[in-house]
Amino acid sequence: MTMNEMNAIDPQPRRVDAESLKAAIVDKLAYAVGKDSIVAEPHDWLAATILVVRDRAIDRWMESTRGPYRTGAKRVYYLSVEFLIGRLLRDAMSNLGLVEPIAEALNSLGVDLDAIEALEPDAALGNGGLGRLAACFMESMASVGIPAYGYGIRYVHGLFHQEIKDGNQIELPEDWLSDGNLWEFERREAAYDIGFGGTVESDGMAGDTVRQRWQPQEKVLAIAYDTPIVGWRGARVNTLRLWSARAVNQIHLDDFNRGDHVAALADLTRADTITRVLYPADSTVAGQELRLRQEYFFVSASLQDLLRRHLKQFGTVENLPDKVAIQLNDTHPSVAVAELMRVLVDLHDIPWEKAWAITRGTISYTNHTLLPEALESWPVGLMERLLPRHMQIIYEINARLLQSARKSLDADADLLASLSLIDEHHGRRVRMGQLAFVGSHKVNGVSALHTELMKETVFRDLHRLYPERIENKTNGIALRRWLMQANPGLIDLLVEAIGPAVLDDVDRLVEAGALAEDAAFQERFAAIKRANKMQLAEVIRSTVGVSVDPDAMFDVQIKRIHEYKRQLLNILETIAVYNQIRMHPERDWAPRVKIFAGKAAASYWTAKQIIRLINDVARVINNDPAVRGLLKVVFLPNYNVSLAETIVPAADLSEQISTAGMEASGTGNMKLALNGAITIGTLDGANVEISERVGPDNIVIFGLTADEVAAQRRAGHNPRAIIGADDRLRTVIEAIADGVFSPDDRNRYRDLVDNLMTTDGFLVTADFDAYCRAQREVDAIWREPASWQAKAIRNTANMAWFSADRTIRQYARDIWDVPVG
């Protein structure tokens, strides 16, 4: 069928007025859900509404998909193991301009939109900032008009559902798919064989090169599921394609009939495991193998898919860099470098040098961390067993890399060992971050500080060899979701004050800065914040049974639980304030609610201990009448996008207190500041740029800088001496060690305390005093409501630069070489 013939049978766009939507919802309720409106339950109305909105997204999706075929436009393929997309109904309605007519249609049917929206499950496809960034980028690529696919894994359970029992984190399966997913479409025609293990054999000659053929021992099928991602105003709808694993042989009947049911279903179980859980613990050999299987599975399927599409349209792989941009979101998809080389050299007979030029011209890599454990490495033995041909290719890439280094840098043995893709000093491991670096034409950091530190630390020697490769692309967030959708009261106020053009031109947010000292605007701004706090207070009451005062300062730290993010510093200072309130009840204390949320990796014992300590401290403080309600501590379980959308608009204070030099960027800091929270933080990650944008008087910065952290470590950090010299800190640590917060087990936190006393690798003790002083500065600002509101307004007004649209336009211009709308 020709394109003209396809256009001739296009369905007419569906109507979007309230009456038409009402009729469509009733129709879907009857003929898709199979319910009469008289007996329909809330989840039935949700399903019908999703289907009606989805139909209208599909109208735009079909046209967006056809566009690149007509024009030959370059496509972007964004590879990420996480896409934390959250609930999609409100997002799609907002971007399509359907919120008001859908609400009106449902209201006429006696259905409350807000009530049914709350029933939609969060897609459990991510853990934190990495996955949420990928989701924001997908929405922004559609909004600025870039043809793009997101590629990831369709996890059945995702990370885990977090419950708190007796203060402990309990990991339970996240059953987000138990009732199906109305947003996705299975694409049975997009099914690919994914191989593992086996042997590599020579197979004739390709020019002057011996052709190699990989014969996998095991194969599984990758099946595609597509979700439409709607851009702002529905101008473009892109595709999120997630892969699900299936066994080639679903069942071995001979084994089943012999009664060996385990053997009969072994292939099914082995395949199903690949896409069952996000980030399986890799502390065991089996866990490491599963994670490597996951990463290769989705990379291989994605490359097969995009190459099929490319060859169908262009007929050759030699123009791949001109028509395809592959972005590796962190180190997890870095095996794509070896896989693309295998496909080009082994399957398309492209000579090595040309294949390498194609690979490097097509792939680019975003680094998100300086933590060595997050720059993945795999044992050579595991790679050779699971991906034998890829290991051969990695050895060849490495040999050529080191040969180049000898010529360009006159490298000695130590420098060659540092550059090598094979770490010979820790059990022979493949350095996947280094593989991604050498196989990419651009490598970007995600904040100005992080990018400079990449050059100085983890990629110092590769930067010497390729000095033009690293550049910065500071992260951004989907302002439409995190302001227009999450905080409708605030966006309504801004539209009224500075005009509706701000909805399409977020840079106009800066105009609100002129109103920062306006008393009437401050009053309305504060009233919206208080209303948001009342909503969060109800969530806190219903979730954890703690009553909090919406007139108290809501002091928020919401992020993955990790030692470098220093939730421990926060709770130590909380204990210090608790002690001071009891000792000096006569002082004018600023009432606070300390709100924590986040998950710890299932195998991360220290992080889980920090969660338990927070909950133990909360139990003591919240039940002590001597505090008189001046201080409350809350840990909200199962942090996800939907919970964030309630917490972020209600936050007064944003805790961004990581050890300087360790947070690559952060995006929670951007969301909270956008919604009028004042940041207390170190000069780390994007805090540096936030401080520059909002102004030093509208942010509270404390603690060691990245250079000072490095100097302190070189000089020999002595936490015991710091603790001994600080009565407040010593009292806090003695209380924890003595079991004040764990009377049922006085030794519960012995290891945590011993670590603080002896090692303190994240310099909690070094920054404790500065953090306490900064918090008292926050108290002083809070006591001056007009000053606080002015600072909060300036935060909102100056955050437009942190839009994901800006970030994506920079990627498009500097890395992908694609035009934007």
UniProtKB/TrEMBL annotation:
One of its GO terms (biological process) is glycogen catabolic process. It is an enzyme of class 2 (transferase). Its cofactor is pyridoxal 5'-phosphate. GO terms for molecular function: glycogen phosphorylase activity; pyridoxal phosphate binding. Keywords: Allosteric enzyme, Carbohydrate metabolism, Cytoplasm, Glycosyltransferase, Pyridoxal phosphate, Transferase. Belongs to the glycogen phosphorylase family. Phosphorylase is an important allosteric enzyme in carbohydrate metabolism. Enzymes from different sources differ in their regulatory mechanisms and in their natural substrates. However, all known phosphorylases share catalytic and structural properties. Allosteric enzyme that catalyzes the rate-limiting step in glycogen catabolism, the phosphorolytic cleavage of glycogen to produce glucose-1-phosphate, and plays a central role in maintaining cellular and organismal glucose homeostasis. This is Alpha-1,4 glucan phosphorylase. It comes from Bauldia litoralis.
